[in-house]
């Protein structure tokens, strides 16, 4: 495979927040937006709900960035490398890591839910199941998941924001571009310019992040109210304990193994982490995560391939949630599942969760289908639907963190992680 030689550009620099020297930085602004949103939702829930369109507008701005940013960065990374064997090796290593991480998340959730028994003593009487019954019909078959990888039109995939289809098309396009050698140089230079423009575009959109975060948190607190957290506080507590353990023990342990300072890594990804947590949207955090990990010393072809692929195959927070939620529903119904039954359900959840990236409330889609398969009551999923926004915030933030670290794992495995660039985040 021919390689198109092109001078590698410097990693995109972060754009400082506009304003005088005393003006708070981007991360501080997001924290302030979060705090104001919580306070507004608690004090004036009627007003808080009405400003939700501000959060929706921010998410739409993010979504319009993703397709061109992802396509340009991935094609430039692959075509610039020009090594199909290397891309295949990167993909295999990424999948191995994804499966190990998600398996750990499943067993961690299984251990916590059996230890704390959060579903014992919670009543499910009178809970509507219409919404979750509809969800059960959305589950994809294995054949549909496989066929869904291949877009019939790249423009349709971009319009729908289907990340995995864009990755597949961009991978083929990058390999073909590398295959024609010097004739492809003008296209490669054009896409390199597009990538730089999109990183600058991302920086401008991120200036609206504090406002979007404030509106999202206000609408969540104002719409759901604090009462539902008291009713199901034990489940929420177990869920966030599991996410905390996974974040600091599992992800922290992996960072130690690959010789990446864990708290330096957390400092580097703080903005995509906060955006994912407050908006409960992995897509919202993707543009910033792509930029940050490129600046963190991970080569662009690895960032562009591993990070979006992980959105379908490495949902650590979602996997942890599914293991806790499924057994929680069994506990609600007073059913004692054997270890073998629980393991079979975990295997089913691990396999079926691969096809719901980008599906709204995708974790509930998978959970509802599994409940029907194993004869568990849909009322339990209906209860979870009421607090899913609160749970979704935590699991989405851990999903993004796990995928950011996955890029560093693969880069270290390939021997191409630039430790000098990591130093800038200390």
TrEMBL record:
Gene3D superfamilies: Sodium:dicarboxylate symporter (1.10.3860.10). One of its GO terms (cellular component) is plasma membrane. The chain crosses the membrane at residues 22-43, 64-82, 94-116, 163-181, 201-223, 235-258, 320-340. It is found in: Cell membrane. This is Glutamate-aspartate carrier protein. It comes from Luteitalea pratensis. InterPro entries: Na-dicarboxylate_symporter, Na-dicarboxylate_symporter_CS, Na:dicarbo_symporter_sf. Keywords: Cell membrane, Membrane, Symport, Transmembrane, Transmembrane helix, Transport. It is a multi-pass membrane protein. Coiled coil: none annotated. GO terms for biological process: dicarboxylic acid transport. One of its GO terms (molecular function) is symporter activity.
